[in-house]
Amino acid sequence: MAKDRYQQGIDKIQELTQASDDHPTGFMDIGEGLKDIAPDLSKYVVEFAFGDIYSRPGIDNKQKVLTTITALVAQGKPQIEMHIKTGLSVGLKPEEIVGCIVHLIPYTGFPSVLNALSVAKKVFAEQGVSVKTPEDE
Amino acid sequence: MAKDRYQQGIDKIQELTQASDDHPTGFMDIGEGLKDIAPDLSKYVVEFAFGDIYSRPGIDNKQKVLTTITALVAQGKPQIEMHIKTGLSVGLKPEEIVGCIVHLIPYTGFPSVLNALSVAKKVFAEQGVSVKTPEDE
Amino acid sequence: MAKDRYQQGIDKIQELTQASDDHPTGFMDIGEGLKDIAPDLSKYVVEFAFGDIYSRPGIDNKQKVLTTITALVAQGKPQIEMHIKTGLSVGLKPEEIVGCIVHLIPYTGFPSVLNALSVAKKVFAEQGVSVKTPEDE
Amino acid sequence: MAKDRYQQGIDKIQELTQASDDHPTGFMDIGEGLKDIAPDLSKYVVEFAFGDIYSRPGIDNKQKVLTTITALVAQGKPQIEMHIKTGLSVGLKPEEIVGCIVHLIPYTGFPSVLNALSVAKKVFAEQGVSVKTPEDE
Amino acid sequence: MAKDRYQQGIDKIQELTQASDDHPTGFMDIGEGLKDIAPDLSKYVVEFAFGDIYSRPGIDNKQKVLTTITALVAQGKPQIEMHIKTGLSVGLKPEEIVGCIVHLIPYTGFPSVLNALSVAKKVFAEQGVSVKTPEDE
Amino acid sequence: MAKDRYQQGIDKIQELTQASDDHPTGFMDIGEGLKDIAPDLSKYVVEFAFGDIYSRPGIDNKQKVLTTITALVAQGKPQIEMHIKTGLSVGLKPEEIVGCIVHLIPYTGFPSVLNALSVAKKVFAEQGVSVKTPEDE
């Protein structure tokens, strides 16, 4: 692992968010707002979460983001909004993101799914993307 | 939706488990062992979970099973064993299943991931599959 | 099951919410606001959650809503507000709803219960109902 | 509150479990096996959980036990077995217990429900009770 | 246990919050705002949570509050704000509170920790306390 | 951070478990049994969990282990057994471990606490330690 883990993490975030070189972490919250109370936190986010884990081979970026979104739906975490943006950024189709969330109904129940889809709807509207409907009824 | 939902669900389970026509639900537990106390339960599993949700377009079978596995890791449910089998059955590579579980460390913590990987190891051993290692160190 | 499942679900929602024929789903959120991104979602809510599950025999409407409220307290889901309304609508006394929530202290701890009771207080105030106090101290 | 809280708790447990005067806590685990390491624990269970909370007015014993069972299904706790026994003891019909658990599918998903019903099946078999089937199909 | 449990609870809250005799429960929410719908609730909070449990020997106040904060991080409960205040009040250093929350990353994942640290940052700012940084980088 | 993170993690584990130089990870499960399917996993456990997080300043080893135990009680994870051993190893008194677990009753409810105390009892028995009872009743 010749490459520096922090740089590897920054590169991965830039790849995931299609961020410019001027602000390479793009829309990803790496905990910089918390540096006054936990100055080492963003280092762990960048080095470990992105430099180590997101940089593993085995699954591709689309699978990684779908996995992330699923975990956040199951847990009801607000970070789902940021990771739905990441999903669109790595090329997931809106219907894949919706498909993944709806697929969770038998495993997490309806309320988690309804709450997550409301967030997806908001992100899709902000970015001007629309969903091809999965069924013609 | 011209096709009968129950038959649609059975067909989907057969497709997911590569089950024979003699026992079309294969290794999938659809709650038949509970028919004495909840005779309508397996109908809901087949019709709703598999006939409706697993049969939706938008994401493919591999994505559906990875999504299912992720939810079960986040929740710590024992059904993860059955769905890891399903993953292999639909053509997920062992390293994709492992990759998905390891990817969850930043979202669920280490214990959930260690517990899920122990189940994966057991299933892989039973089925004689091995994992191509993600890193040469 | 001669009756159409969708109609069965709509009838059940109307019964639970005492909704008018003009707007038969009343105050129940069936996911209609999400039809642009998941057009089949409200069908699953109506057909499966209400047409199948809420329409099962075995327990009555009051028991069904208390069960729902309990699950939502344990999970901390915001949908508890809608289902407290449903509870009043099906004839649960406010002290039954409060009694159910307070009963959860030994199982979910105080914070979940305090949060749920704050929602109940808001709903009771909006609907002008008051609670007969369970103890004279 | 003239009555001693500990005695109130013991009386409530005896009422819930239909226990004999010789062993008034019946099948209820009040943490006595843990007295070597936490000698005050069973006092809290008896005084607070049963003497205070289970003794509140507002909901009846059947509602209290259904509420308890629901919370334990949502959390996946092994104590569900003991409280299904309590349910039968206070006069809940097996189909009410099953009805409550099955009702949770839209809120907790299938795996939690399947796991809880397996426990119910075991308890019903041990006690020789059978479920009137909710549907003739 | 000669002392009245309610008085014991009030004394403990006053000790934890350094509250004045005029308003001895200080900033601690004991459920008084819910007395219209659950008049016995604040009694349980005071008598059981503070009079019994917080008054146990075995661990000191600092350990009790760190334990409380940890549980609330793991559960994502909003009560964490109040208990971070309590932590400062009983003499925990800001870096101990932050240290405890950051220590949870391997057990709860990053999102829970980021959300909790945002609350801590807000409380620290309100109270004008600053964190000695754990690392010089 | 001049020292190698992996070595730092191993040193920390050895310190926590009082392990011999022959087997420096002692009783700590670092995922070595999973190396066939996830060869990089134990590296993350050692480098990140122990080399980074457990090695942070701000809180001492006793606080770190109590925090870990609390998180595992709240989540119901089986890893609690290993970390109760770690607690004894770093010098936590049995009554501190019990005190921390019992303190969680108002936050997680009784079942989580009873389950965790059963594990503590088993570990204490294996190691021949006894608890000074917190109350003389």
Automatic annotation (TrEMBL), chains A, B, C, D, E, F:
Protein name as annotated: 4-carboxymuconolactone decarboxylase
Segments forming domain Carboxymuconolactone decarboxylase-like: 39-121
Organism for this UniProt entry: Alteribacillus iranensis
Taxonomic lineage: Bacteria, Bacillati, Bacillota, Bacilli, Bacillales
UniProt xrefs under PANTHER family: 4-CARBOXYMUCONOLACTONE DECARBOXYLASE FAMILY PROTEIN (PTHR33570), CARBOXYMUCONOLACTONE DECARBOXYLASE-LIKE DOMAIN-CONTAINING PROTEIN (PTHR33570:SF2)
GO molecular function: peroxiredoxin activity
InterPro entries membership: 4CMD/NDH-1_regulator (IPR052512), AhpD-like (IPR029032), CMD-like (IPR003779)
